[in-house]
Amino acid sequence: MMIGLACCSNSNMKAIRGVMVAGSVVLLAMSIWLVVDFLGLRAAGDTSEMLYTGSWMWYAPLNIHLAVGVDGISVLMLLLSSIIVFAGTFASWKIDPLPKNFFLWFCLLSTGVFGFFISIDMFTMFMFYEVALIPMYLLIGVWGTGRKEYSAMKLTLMLMGGSAFLMLGLLGIYWHGTPEGGVHTWNILEISHNASIDPSWQNLLFCFTFVGFGVLGAMFPFHTWSPDGHACAPTAVSMLHAGVLMKLGGYGCFRIAIFLLPSAAQELAWIFIILTGISVVYGAFSACVQTDLKYINAYSSVSHCGMVLFAILMLNQTAMTGGILQMLSHGLMTALFFALIGMIYGRTHTRDIREMGGMMQIMPYLGVCYMIAGFASLGLPGLSGFVAEMTIFFGSFEHSDFFHRFFVIAGTSSIVITAVYILRVVGKVILGPVQNEHHRELTDATWWERLATVSLIVCLAGIGFFPNWLNETIRASFVPIIDALNSVF
User: Fold this and answer.
1) Three-state SS annotation for 163-216
2) Are 264 and 199 a contacting pair, CB within 8 Å?
3) pTM value surpassing 0.70
4) For a pLDDT cut of 90, what percent of the chain falls above it?
5) SS3 call for 142
């Protein structure tokens, strides 16, 4: 996509849109084919830990390889990313100014995300992680709204700080994750199969890696960059940022921190359960007191992404499966929210719920879509949120001790709090009386906006009605991690 866009000599919007639509359609088609082929190989009996693997030497002195491979979780994350890139392309149909430059940086951001999910070499994974972060500063600082320069700088500095912690953790795993007399390696599978890192080192490295990835996952108290970044980012960037980029944090936590450092995960999980439990409840309460639609959804994302990390830290297959389902559900749901907020803001020029009302009378299509997104967020049966959250809470409740069950009960309270702020917005903005008579002249969604929203709604309902194949695909991919955790005892 990036090459095709860069080589496009005609810079008018029609040509730019054509290139982006073609690229996003091809990307989505390839992701769907990958999932179908992956499931076919699994059904045929291929039980390899990773499929479609390949490794090419990149920097011999440090044994760095461009090593790739995917399991069931990876292919689902790739599919999620391609769906949001597709929807984000249509949500940015009228982007201005510098549309060509915007889409170039948008494609670079997408490249980092895709590279991260297919990497099984820690160094190349970290490199793609950084590639995904760098474009955020310009995308927010140039094309954002409000305090965009402040938000872009705050986001960049905090995520780069998390990257510093992460790099220390990865270097420690590289040096201490090699059997005596062996060759140092960055390959995740080789380390997991052959290495046994000293438990005392594991504790330190687990803190570095989990905090490093946890910053991107908006874990309390490192979450403060997220609401400002979301609120000031342009629509498509908010969609990709909250829908996919924040999922890199959860993905990295289980792929590296828990898989490669299982002893430390067993010993230190309780500390991070407290922090993520605070994220879940604090994010929901914070959303209740916001008046800006984007800030409401941003704090909601802090709560829902906290639930992802919370589930992963439960260290059992059911809860962690629910955590991945939550990543998929929240990615689609929050992308839909941010798309709709951008469409409403583009018409009303305000995101303040005190200045809006009667959207169902003025823009019925957008109003109905917002209600569907809200119902998915509060866990209505038949939509993806219900499947994900129930799996998390059932799996978490498998722990019979008071500590775990206390935080599970506290986490379930977020469902009630979520219902409060969702129903508040729906009642005020969507179903309430018209606050501004000038809004009666506004138009409803265009065809490209309908295409973007329908694609996300269909996926939300698809997960809600047909979760079994997702559940089985994810559970099978957690078997090596569960085995690593069980080997500690």
Assistant:
1) HHHHHHHHHHHHHHCCCCCCCCCCEHHHHHHHCCCCHHHHHHHHHHHHHHHHHH
2) yes
3) yes
4) 31
5) helix
Rounded to whole angstroms, the Cα distance separating 190 from 435 reads 61
Q: Find all residues with CB under 8 Å of 334, minimum gap 6, and list them.
A: 239, 242, 243, 297, 300, 301, 304
Do 403 and 271 meet the contact criterion of CB atoms below 8 Å apart? Answer: no
Structure tokens at 308: 């992802």
Tokens at 36, concatenated? 């179908």
- The beta-strand segments (E) located in 33-73 are 51-59, 64-70
Give the residue from 148, 282, 307, 160 showing the smallest Cα distance to 228.
Answer: 148
Tokens of 20: 């982006």
Q: What are phi and psi of 124, to 5 degrees?
A: -70, -30
Paired tokens of 134: 């760098």
Ramachandran category for residue 291: left, alpha or beta (phi over 0 → left; psi -120 to 50 → alpha): alpha
Domain locations along the chain: 2-486
Distance CA 383, CA 325 (A): 12
Give CA separation, 415 vs 196, 236, 284, 299, 409, in Å: 40, 27, 9, 14, 11
Cα four-point dihedral sign 166, 172, 173, 174: positive
Q: Report d(CA 482, CA 386) in Å as an integer.
A: 25
**Contact between 2 and 108 (Cβ < 8 Å):** yes
Q: What distance in Å separates the CA atoms of residue 461 and residue 318, rounded to the nearest whole number?
A: 22
Q: What Å distances lie between residue 419 and 105, 427, 430, 480, CA to CA? A: 36, 12, 15, 37
- 8-17, 104-113, 174-183, 341-350: least confidently modelled range: 8-17
